Amino acid sequence: MQYALSIFLSGISLGGQYALIAIGYTLVYGILRLINFAHGDVFMVAGLFLVYLSTWFPLWAALPLMLLFTVALGFAIERAAYKPLRSAPRMSVMISAIGVSYLLQNLATYITGGLPKSYPELPLLSNNVTIGGVSTKWVTIVTPFLVLVLVLALQQLINHTKVGMAMRAVAKDFETSQLMGIKINSVISMTFIIGSFLAGVGSMLYFTNYPSIVPLSGALPGLRAFVAAVFGGIGSVPGAVVGAFIIGMSESVIKGSPFSIFSDAFTFALLIVILVVKPTGLFGEKVTDKV
Amino acid sequence: MLKIDDLRVNYGGIEAVKGIDFEVPEGKIVTLIGANGAGKSTILRTIAGLVKPATGRIRLQAEDITALSPDRIVSKGITLVPEGRHVFPDLTVLENLKIGAYLRTDSLDHDLEWVYSLFPRLKERSWQAAGTLSGGEQQMLAVGRALMSRPKLMMMDEPSLGLAPLVVKDIFSIIKKINDQGVTILLIEQNANMALHTADLAYVLETGRITLSGTGEELLRNEAVKKAYLG
Ligand SMILES: Nc1ncnc2c1ncn2[C@@H]1O[C@H](COP(=O)(O)OP(=O)(O)OP(=O)(O)O)[C@@H](O)[C@H]1O
Ligand SMILES: [Mg+2]
Fold first, then answer.
1. B82 lines ligand 1 (CB under 6 A)
2. Which of A105, B160, B166, B205 would give a disulfide with B38, using CB separation of 3.0 to 4.6 Å?
3. Closest atom of ligand 1 to CA, residue B42
4. Structural domains of chain B in order of their starting residue, each with its CATH number
5. Would you call A33 an interface residue with chain B, using a CB distance cutoff of 8 Å?
6. Which protein residue has the closest C-alpha to ligand 1 atom 4?
């Protein structure tokens, strides 16, 4: 019973962290039809930002600064690497994204010297707590609630504000959106800002569970979050969230079983199955390509 | 109100518009007619800022608006109802109307009432996703959406395309009504008969050049126009 509870707790907490990354993939895909391969690395860099900022500033200043820097990074990547390719074939933008991903990893290796950097202890989040006889960190309990609040706020933004309406319009049709007076570049920047902000929050929740961070730390969580986004139907925010919780929960169950070594294999097997059975994912739109 | 001088537009190496001059006087309905591929849509898309011209000048009330970005052009009071309607299918009818007023910050109530009075059908369906409307209803929505920006000049690219004759009649009478309320209209049509009957001033476009111009009535009587466009 206690065992089941501990599996459940770590499952929803992982799921929540993946959800925050997956939303960034899905929002950008929804608007640009681009798989932003650099997103997992932005998540890793957000972790490094906090490592360095927390040595210079107290945490109450370092955390908001980390979010600000992460948002600025996401914004800058879009302006520098994707915007100039707006009318280029989609494959070129994809290759540019892979390039940015390697650039971020290499820069991180250069700056850290390739050594693991220990992640700062966050007040409250890093503290231990015992519920139902299971000992865990507070972050495990906080994550699902924080994710819920952020996702509801995001849904509110997308469905009930002018900016959100513009995001939905641009996702469907660049040209007609321009005829409405919408500046599509601002809307695209906005999606990168939101995605990076959530990845920043996610990195804080995720890395608190680990003693240290290396330049490749973003790769696997990024990949799992991407699988979650595809699983839920890429382009759909609720899909990404549901997909992330499913992926997080199955990872936790398998890691707690004798087959723990197969946890990533299982994740990708799941991806293959869903792509074969329902290529658009759980919540995907029927027609994904725009003309 | 709108004055075009020596406008040339290229797509890659192909010259789609080959140096045209024309004028849209304030308060009038002006039509451009021409065969498929004559360059009609290209002209409207260039005025709207979606396509950059190779040479030429576009002036709105003496102000040079050539090559401004589309959002600046909308803010100057020019709007385009695009060929093929292009309503946002996942947005509701009401959201489509609101997004037409994207650059406005004042109250929309009055204009919503105006659009709903022109198209009562849209009011009944304001909560329906625009993609589920019929073709004629989508055209009404595309026109209503354009009106929500409170334009001085409304450009329309083949509003009658693919619509039943009765609906076409409706659309043209609405165009007249909108014009009566002070909106200048630049209309592109393949349905030359209807367009020339409605227009104050008309231009005939042939493969990127204007070959004829006159009042709607003059062109209706013109032998060449009769032969080529009125069947
Ligand atoms: N994006 C584009 N790229 C290349 N050529 C184009 C493009 N758009 C239009 N053209 C070419 O420019 C010419 C004029 O096209 P345009 O769409 O302006 O014609 P039109 O008069 O509106 O025709 P229709 O009545 O069929 O709508 C055509 O020869 C067309 O093939
Ligand atoms: Mg056309």
1. no
2. B205
3. 18
4. 2-230 (3.40.50.300)
5. no
6. B11
Does residue A93 have a pLDDT over 50?
yes
pLDDT tens for A138-173 read 999 999 999 999 999 999 999 999 999 999 999 999
Interface A:B, Cβ pairs < 8 A: 54
Residue A291: predicted pLDDT: 35
Cβ of B162 closer than 6 Å to ligand 1, yes or no, is: no
Q: Is the CB of B151 under 6 A from ligand 1?
A: no
Tell me what ipTM this predicted complex has: 0.94
Task: Write b or e for each residue in A108-140: b if 16 or more Cβ atoms lie within 10 A of its Cβ, otherwise e.
Answer: beeebeeeebebbebeebeeeeeeeebebbbbb
| Domain-located, residue A116 | yes
Q: Residue A153 maps to which CATH number?
A: 1.10.3470
For residue A291, being part of any structural domain is answered with no
Question: For A178-228, how does the pLDDT look when each residue is reduced to its tens digit (9 = 90+)?
Answer: 999 999 999 999 999 999 999 999 999 999 999 999 999 999 999 999 999
**Res A289: pLDDT:** 45
- Of B18, B33, B40, best ligand 1 pocket probe by most atoms within 8 Å of the beta carbon: B40
- Nearest-CA neighbor of B213 among B68, B81, B21? B21
Find tokens 């032998």 and name the residue: B223
**Tokens standing for A100?**
């940015």
Query: Residue A37 belongs to what domain range?
Result: 2-277
Could you tell me if B69 lies within 8 Å of chain A, comparing CB atoms?
yes
Distance B207 CA to ligand 1 centre (A): 10
Phi–psi pair at A38, nearest 5 degrees: -80, -5
Angle of helix A2-32 relative to helix A39-56, nearest 10 degrees, comes to 110
Round to the nearest angstrom and report the end-to-end CA distance of chain B.
33
In a domain, A284, yes or no: no
The DSSP code for A119 is: P
C-alpha span between A229 and B57 (Å, rounded): 48
Best probe residue, ligand 1, of B20, B32, B41 (max atoms within 8 Å of C-beta): B41
> Which amino acid is located at A22 in the chain?
A
Beta bridge partners of A106: none
The helix/strand/coil state of B203 is strand
Quote the tokens at residue A54: 């927390």
